[in-house]
């Protein structure tokens, strides 16, 4: 494997010094002495150990009484426990651009992450993906990624699907560990998109890499058909039964606990069963920038797992070792043993995950919550800061007025069941009032020419309009709002910002978050993004939005990942049969 993190250690191929250090013939660079070291294989926390580190890697885990060849720097940790650095096996980096994402993660004890890339490919294809994956390189964390399947609602919602050559280019990159979450319903589609997605899966498997799964809603024969395509993991189980269903089919089970859902407590009874917990991982599936500060990241997942009395040796394996093995990184990370990178966290004891210091490749990257290294800055080309190619006034004019309840007949409505799950509801004028329903407009955002008005039930926004480009899996931007003036202000401002989310009432912009990088990430420091996001959420909740996270409730209206009725610029899409549906219900 080639060098992953520039400046954080030599290529693992250069073993000449390492074995000489182990034999005491050459001095290590660093000795971390007087530690209790977690042995991820035996599950023991072994006292009185020293790590001899050379060129960023572990040469020896020795009894503390033994001394290496003199010359290295000694760090006596006075009995602290050392565990492998945490590795998030499934996450997304949106809203914060990569350097700020790295800066936020450094003090948490996360030393590696496997990041999805679909957000950067949804409108810009390979140009966006190349920007993102190049930004992940040479950072002071080991950042890996998966190639995006770019599963749209319909074939037409994938303006930039990868060609086989483009996928091959990504799969040839050692940082690319496989194909990112492939939604089961897309993989089993009978038409062109299904064929394309299945071909990507086959190409990934032929390249010796993993295909990451997404089985939400699949059971029985459909689950078998999907697993049979070569899927190797799932991060979607939200109940013990669902977790056991994918576990028993041989999938690596990722237990999700982050901003999208927090399922650890519900899934806790799994740990009372006689299962092979090397087949499980703890993942975040993303944490939003505000919660990164107020709640934490994978470090908090580890703390909650420990508080739920999951044994520490199981927790640290699930938050690092098992992830490394699943992604075929064993031998390089996930275990404090000779030959592996010295990626580790020093904590007071196995049951207290409060990082005293964090090392990546033998370099201390954070110490007592203070970041000690700088993330590598990334220059974003102008073309990827101007991806919202919409004329607000013209787009709204060509969309026409927002729909209202018809005097006769029924209309089709997206009704919220939870903040994420929706259903298809058919309503007559007598079954709802205008106040119950909120117009929602999907506009194809690379050209702005095509759009579709739908209706939402259960959002609760009482005034103004909200426009967002941070829509999931989609090249569309979405505007929710009743009055034209507010919609024009919100849409106009979001275009001006190059993307993000804007809430406006009349001619006034009430709150906004700029996300000009491919329309999904900010160039601002994390602190500014957090402040803007908090103000935006407060404004929308203050205007009556019923959901705790109004941004998530709106941004997910475009995704095929969550049932049941979604929206695109071509119409509603019913996920069960991928039917493209109009607002008016054809009777009879
Ligand atoms: Fe995900």
Q: What does this molecule look like?
A:
With 588 residues, the protein is α/β, with parallel strands linked by helices. It folds into three domains: 120 residues, Urease, subunit C, domain 1; 248 residues, Metal-dependent hydrolases (TIM Barrel, Alpha-Beta Barrel), CATH 3.20.20.140; 200 residues, no CATH class. Helices cover 26% and strands 27% of the residues. It has 17 helices and 30 strands. Strands 1, 2, 3, 4, 5, 15, 16, 17 and 18 form a nine-stranded mixed beta sheet that branches. Strand 16 and strand 17 form a beta hairpin. The longest helix is centred in the last third of the chain and has 17 residues. It is elongated, with a radius of gyration of 25 Å. Bound molecules: fe (ii) ion (FE2). The site of fe (ii) ion has 5 residues, from loops.
Secondary-structure topology with pairs:
Layout: H1 16-22, E1 30-38, E2 45-54, E3 57-63, E4 73-76, E5 81-84, E6 86-91, E7 95-96, H2 98-105, E8 110-115, H3 118-121, H4 126-136, E9 142-147, H5 164-171, E10 176-183, H6 184-187, H7 192-206, E11 210-214, H8 220-227, E12 231-234, H9 240-248, E13 252-256, H10 264-267, E14 280-283, H11 289-294, H12 298-307, H13 312-326, E15 344-347, E16 357-360, E17 363-367, E18 370-371, H14 392-399, E19 410-416, E20 422-428, E21 437-444, E22 451-457, E23 465-468, E24 476-481, H15 484-497, E25 500-505, E26 508-514, E27 521-522, H16 526-542, H17 550-555, E28 565-568, E29 571-574, E30 579-581
Parallel strand pairs: 1-4, 1-5, 6-8, 7-27, 8-9, 9-10, 10-11, 11-12, 12-13, 13-14, 19-22
Antiparallel strand pairs: 1-2, 2-3, 5-15, 15-16, 16-17, 17-18, 19-20, 21-22, 21-24, 23-24, 23-25, 25-26, 28-29, 29-30
Helix pairs in contact: 12-13
The structure holds fe (ii) ion (FE2).
């Amino acid at each position: 494997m080639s060098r992953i993190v520039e400046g954080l250690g030599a290529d693992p191929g250069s073993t000449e010094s390492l074995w000489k250090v182990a034999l005491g013939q050459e001095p290590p660079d660093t000795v971390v002495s007087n530690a209790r070291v977690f042995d991820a294989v035996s599950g023991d926390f072994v006292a009185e150990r020293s790590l001899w580190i050379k060129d960023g890697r572990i040469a020896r885990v020795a009894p503390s009484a033994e001394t290496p060849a003199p010359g290295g720097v000694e760090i006596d940790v006075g009995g602290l426990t050392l565990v492998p650095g945490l590795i998030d096996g499934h996450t997304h980096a949106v809203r914060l651009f990569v350097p700020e994402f790295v800066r936020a993660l450094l003090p948490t004890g996360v030393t590696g992450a496997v990041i999805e890339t679909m957000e950067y490919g949804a409108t810009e294809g390979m140009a966006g993906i190349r920007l993102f994956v190049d930004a992940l390189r040479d950072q002071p964390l080991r950042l890996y990624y998966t190639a995006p399947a770019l599963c749209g609602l319909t074939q037409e919602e994938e303006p930039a699907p990868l060609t086989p050559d483009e996928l091959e280019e990504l799969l040839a990159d050692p940082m690319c560990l496989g194909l990112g979450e492939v939604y089961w319903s897309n993989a089993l589609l009978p038409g062109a998109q299904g064929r394309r997605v299945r071909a990507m899966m086959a190409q990934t498997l032929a390249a010796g890499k993993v295909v990451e799964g997404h089985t939400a809603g699949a059971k029985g024969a459909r689950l078998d058909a999907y697993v049979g395509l070569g899927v190797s993991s799932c991060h979607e189980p939200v109940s013990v039964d669902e977790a056991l269903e994918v576990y028993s089919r041989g999938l690596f089970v990722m237990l999700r606990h982050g901003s999208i859902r927090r399922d650890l407590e519900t899934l806790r009874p799994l740990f009372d069963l006689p299962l092979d917990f090397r087949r499980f991982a703890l993942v975040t599936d993303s944490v939003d920038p505000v919660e990164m500060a107020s709640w934490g990241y994978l470090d908090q997942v580890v703390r909650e797992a420990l508080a739920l009395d999951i044994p520490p040796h199981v927790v640290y394996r699930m938050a690092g070792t098992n992830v490394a093995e699943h992604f075929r990184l064993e031998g390089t990370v996930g275990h404090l043993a000779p030959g592996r990178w010295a990626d580790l966290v020093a904590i007071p004891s196995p049951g207290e995950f409060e990082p005293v210091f964090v090392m990546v490749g033998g370099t201390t990257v954070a110490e007592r919550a203070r970041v000690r290294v700088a993330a590598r800055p990334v220059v974003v080309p102008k073309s990827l800061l101007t991806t919202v190619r919409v004329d607000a006034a013209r787009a709204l004019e060509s969309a026409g007025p927002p729909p209202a309840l018809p005097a006769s007949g029924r209309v089709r409505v997206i009704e919220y069941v939870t903040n994420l799950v929706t259903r298809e509801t058919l309503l007559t004028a007598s079954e709802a009032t205008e106040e119950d329903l909120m117009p929602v407009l999907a506009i194809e955002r690379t050209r702005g020419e095509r759009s579709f008005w739908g209706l939402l039930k259960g959002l609760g926004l009482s005034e103004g309009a909200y426009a967002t480009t941070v829509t999931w899996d989609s090249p569309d931007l979405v505007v929710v709002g009743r009055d034209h003036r507010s919609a024009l202000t919100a849409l106009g401002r979001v275009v001006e910002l190059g993307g993000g989310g804007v809430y406006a009432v009349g001619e006034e912009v009430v709150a906004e978050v700029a996300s000009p990088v491919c329309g999904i990430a900010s160039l601002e420091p994390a602190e500014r993004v957090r402040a803007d996001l908090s103000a935006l959420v407060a404004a929308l909740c203050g205007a009556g939005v019923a959901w705790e996270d109004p941004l998530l409730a709106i941004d997910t209206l475009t995704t095929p990942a969550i049932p049941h009725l979604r929206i695109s610029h071509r119409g509603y899409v019913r996920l069960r049969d991928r039917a493209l549906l109009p607002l008016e219900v054809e009777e009879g």
